[in-house]
Design brief:
Blueprint lengths: L5 H31 L1 E3 L14 E5 L11 E6 L4 E9 L4 E7 L2 E7 L7 E4 L1 H5 L22 E2 L4 E5 L9 H4 L2 E2 L3 E10 L5 E2 L5 E4 L3
Antiparallel strand pairs: 1-2, 2-11, 3-4, 3-11, 4-9, 5-6, 5-8, 6-7, 7-13, 9-10, 11-12
Length: 208
């Protein structure tokens, strides 16, 4: 077998070296980009699904096509307070909150439907605390009666998974589309929890 010439071996080593360098730089660029387009969670309003200190990827390209139960970054209320919450009510949905046996019952009638559903989120019944005000006022905030309201065409109704420790639409009201920064369904840190953020919520047809 003919052995490669010294300059051929050197050339091959040179190419491999450059390829390794390019791969390293691309990986580094990917990490920097991921961290740049991410949010560092502050507070406990989404526990135990998301914890303080977690870093979540901001999928800003999905902000115009939010799905029910997406986790989102948004600016809420008059002061545009930064929040991380779950989408419960989409534009045109009819929403309300009542309490049964001291636990929250969130109902949603999707836009264009005549069927009411109960949002089943086991996190809520585990962490009710003293936040037992029904909903909603005309602006989507908690009130004094379980009154149905319609989510405006340009807005969303957001709730936290930590029912007893979340300032969400019950406090701030409906959140406008323009104030949603992106979807946060993917966790970057801690590395031990890297991957999709679990979604415990679902819709179940309400019993008459």
């Amino acid at each position: 077998m003919k052995r490669p010439l010294r300059d051929e071996r050197g050339s091959a080593t040179h190419v491999v070296g450059w390829a390794a360098l390019v791969s390293f730089l691309l990986a580094l660029l990917g990490i920097v980009a991921a961290l740049a387009f991410s949010v560092h969670v502050k507070g406990h309003s989404m526990e135990p699904t998301v914890h303080q200190g977690d870093r979540l990827l901001v999928q800003f390209w999905k902000r115009g096509d939010l799905k029910r139960f997406d986790l989102v970054e948004a600016r809420a209320g008059v002061a545009k307070t930064p929040v991380v919450k779950r989408v419960i009510g989409l534009p045109g949905d009819t929403v309300a909150i009542r309490f049964k046996d001291g636990k929250p019952v969130v109902t949603v009638m999707p836009a264009g439907s005549s069927t009411a559903y109960v949002v089943v989120n086991p996190r809520w019944s585990e962490q009710v605390g003293d936040r037992i005000a029904p909903c909603c006022n005309a602006d989507g905030t908690a009130g004094t009666a379980a009154t149905e309201v319609v989510v405006p065409a340009d807005s969303y109704w957001l709730l936290g998974d930590n029912w007893g420790g979340s300032d969400d639409s019950r406090t701030y009201g409906f959140v406008k589309k323009a104030d949603v920064g992106g979807v946060l369904n993917f966790r970057l840190q801690p590395l031990g929890a890297f991957g999709s953020v679990p979604n415990p919520a679902r819709l179940v047809a309400a019993k008459n």
